[in-house]
Amino acid sequence: MLRNYAIGIDIGTTSTKVVLFDEKGAAVAHHSKNYPLLSEAPGAAEQKPDEIFEAVNESLRETVRKSGDLADRISFISFSTAMHSLIAVDSEGTPLTNSITWADIRSEPYVAPFKSDFSETALELYKRTGVPLHPMTPLFKLQWLKNEHPDIFQRAEKFVGIKDYILFRWFGEWHTDQASAAATGLWNMHTKKWDEEALKLADVTPEKLPSLQPTTYYWGELSEVLAKKSGMNSSVKVVIGATDGPLSNLGVGAISPGDIAVTIGTSGAIRTTSATPILDTDGRTFCYPLTENHWVSGGPVNNGGISFQWIHDTLQKEDDSAAYEKLSRDAEQIQPGAEGLIFLPYLTGERAPLWDAQAKASFIGLTLRHNHNHMVRAVLEGCILNLFSVYSLIKSHVGNREVKIFATGGFTNSLLWKQILADVFQTNVSIPEHTESSCLGAVLLGRYAIGETDTLEEAPVETKQYEEITPNPDHQAIYEELFHLYQSLSDTMQTQYKSIHDFQNKHKKESGK
């Protein structure tokens, strides 16, 4: 019997998704399991590692069950994971902390002085690691842990990520893939080893971290126990895989020069793929490996769908999808540019391009003629203009190639939002039929890892069907003008965010007395 089916597992921030794909990349069975994001202290964003471990096991078991007779035709499992998580574990592999996620900003006090007082050192660190300096990175989480919880820091045998922990529970070995390692801010992209200077800053040694493996590393078979629990044959291979952003590029087919992947869910990201690393002269974009010959550069933004949710909750109140559709339709009545109303979408601080956890959102240009429809349109436009500002940092590396945009995420449910994306970028936007691009990317990487394909470009996916959104050329001039205004206002406002942040904190505390 031909074993040509494969499973992709994506360990996400709010859920784990498991999808079974056939040899053409079509999804034939899937299961997902949600888990909470815990915020028991200001700035905290944690998860319980064992809850995620159980979510992975349950979702895998249920996907295999739903696959029926196809279970015997599964060749391998391959992993995707959210970036920047950190767990301290003891000598037995038992967690001493929750999984501290990318959204946790408690290490911000350790980032700010490093960026301001050691700017040259900070830029050199970025040039070696490819990771902008931000509280999301385990480098600064380790500094925070050492200073705020020294007892845990000293007791820890190792510091690992959530995927590392899952695979340790499966195989009893501490390994991490180079893409996950890159996201820690501790990995040197040039030497492909842990960076000595970064380790000194974090006060850890290589022995305190998992061993480094390429994203194509795999285990030759499951344990008998895991095979029995999951309902699979023990000869199923397990590919270590990579991280969700680079794998999403692969999953939507954006791995050739000029291909751009845009994702807008709760947050968002824009990414492009190149054969060699691409770095920003001012350290404002990331660069992570997918394989040795595929590097994904771009930037994540904090504020995507969460901005639409905020304006919905503020103006609409009804808690159903129809309310979002109504808001979007109402905003269509407003001309591009929202009659000069501009929204800087920094509701939850911002990563790219500002890398400022203290950034604040703002409406600029409000007049008596503006109503809630203008505000909704300005919010949708502001999120896209923010992504375009990140794109402006990487577009020079695209050169004169034809640009293709592949877009995924919940925002694709809004026709207006998709049209704004096409109009601002002035290029066609392709919407993949499938939605689990990171799971599919994991499987495509897995096929390359175990030798089923010779290159990633030969990924055997014949089911890619796209919705095409065409830009309106009549909107090009106004969005070019609006972007320059947006960029100028963003630069101006950034000088005030710390003062606003300090004022808000001061009076929040006083009002709570």
Automatic annotation (TrEMBL):
Keywords, in A-Z order: Kinase, Transferase
Domain Carbohydrate kinase FGGY C-terminal: 261-449
Biological source species: Fictibacillus norfolkensis
Keyword Protein biosynthesis attributed: no
All copies of domain Carbohydrate kinase FGGY N-terminal, residue ranges: 5-251
Family recorded in the similarity comment: Belongs to the FGGY kinase family.
GO molecular function: kinase activity
Species lineage: Bacteria, Bacillati, Bacillota, Bacilli, Bacillales
Name of the molecule in the record: Gluconate kinase
